[in-house]
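Researcher: Next sequence.
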Amino acid sequence: MDYKEIKKELRKYASLKRKNINERFFKTGKGQYGEGDKFIGVCVPDIRRVARKFAKVKLKDSEKFLQSEIHEERLLALLILIEKNKKANRNENRAEQKKIVNFYLRNKKWVNNWDLVDISAHHILGQAVFDGLKSKSIFTKLTASSVMWNRRIGIIASWTFIKNGEVNLTLRLTKKLLSDKEDLMHKAVGWMLRECWKLGEENKKSVAASKSSTNPTNEKNKTKSASRKNKKGKKAQEKVEQFLIQNYNQLPRTT
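Model: Next structure:
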């Protein structure tokens, strides 16, 4: 697929109004976290549309977009990577998954704004670590980085573990990041703590839903499964509560 063809397709959806909005929203002014980032004015749903259309593009070709100075082109590359990774995961193609996560880590310097991190870290890196393709030590390394975006990748990638009922990793990483001086890190930490807590709330809902089944056998099986999840959710909430109590004085006010 032609690089110029994809660029042309993306620019079909560009607008000056959206460009101006994005430049303000993503703080591209001097001294701000997004200083120097360039936009062409394409909204996320349209970028997703282009990503789905060109999802079969080769990794080496998507790298041109990931290393672009244009924000929407970097986002496009990440969305293509996510599509590729989901397909590899569905097909249990671990070799392809490993190839994708290594590509992601090699190019992480271009994953350099909060939306780029938040949309990709858990889908690509988090899934790879959860599937045993990368060691959990990568999280420790990233959250200790002097680069804020690396630290954010580290904590957001742990979301995959939360979604699978595991909160210990996130709480351990959060503990390290409580003294972080960046507001965007405070927000990321607070977000992941809320996701840990929500694990219990969502599991309560699944118990209630399982009891509404009209089939007695299905109801019994669903209730057992939901009850196991609910116990795990309760434990998750207890761990979060204990963490907050123990670390209350260290919590940034913006968390």
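Model: Residues 216-246 form the longest helix (31 residues). The chain has two domains: 1-132, 158-255.
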